[in-house]
Amino acid sequence: MSERKSDPDRDDSERAFFGRRKGHKLRQHQADLIDNLLPHLALDIEGEKPADAREIFDPAADDVRLEIGFGGGEHLAAEAQAFAATGFIGCEPYVNGMAKILAQIEAANIGNIRLFAGDAAELLAWLPKASLSRIDLIHPDPWPKRRHWKRRFVQDRTIAAMARVLKPNGEFRFVCDIDDYCAWTLSHLARSPDFKWLAERADDFRQPWAGYTMTRYGRKAAREGRKAAYLRFRRVG
């Protein structure tokens, strides 16, 4: 989970994603990856919007998925390797997390990942309508204090933004070990006409979906006795 060093009471409600830009000092090879590999994979949302998100990738992808706040990149890298014909966009403003995914991309020669080191809301606004088959948000910052709830990624406006870019029957998947944030997410998605919660029985949200790659943070939470919920929502309409 990423954190941001800033005034915790600053009104930054127009920003939909909060993350600390830099943490521990990068090792030399990590710094080299940021300088030399990232520019080849980074999306430039200041440029012309793509007509088709599949064309972001070379060769063009069969479909496109987005992971918001990918942390150490374990899940993103595993998914990209498992679904080679799918294009994956990873959004993470935390520089150390970006360095970690770049190391995995280099080591495994992964060619179907593109990266964005910025605000996920801006990325969603840049992407074409109905261009994504899935969006993943895994162990996001919970911002547990009430005065900070406006900083949570899941808000009415970001739900609407995700609905715009998801294809009909596309999915938003959310993993969290903080009960309050899970309840928050369920309540916000429940009042959206664009999404339907897919759980039919308790194990549908108590157990990871098939093929899920547990992240380092997820393993840490389990060791510390915190149980995650695995929520899936389908884009309707």
From TrEMBL:
Coiled coil: none
Superkingdom of the organism of origin: Bacteria
One GO cellular component, as annotated: tRNA methyltransferase complex
Pathway the protein contributes to: tRNA modification; N(7)-methylguanine-tRNA biosynthesis
PROSITE patterns in the cross-refs: SAM_MT_TRMB (PS51625)
Positions with a binding annotation for S-adenosyl-L-methionine: E67, E92, D119, D141
Ranges of biased composition (kind: Basic and acidic residues): 1-17
InterPro entries (alphabetical): SAM-dependent_MTases_sf, tRNA_(Gua-N-7)_MeTrfase_Trmb, tRNA_methyltr_TrmB_bact
Family label: Belongs to the class I-like SAM-binding methyltransferase superfamily. TrmB family.
Function text: Catalyzes the formation of N(7)-methylguanine at position 46 (m7G46) in tRNA.
Protein name: tRNA (guanine-N(7)-)-methyltransferase
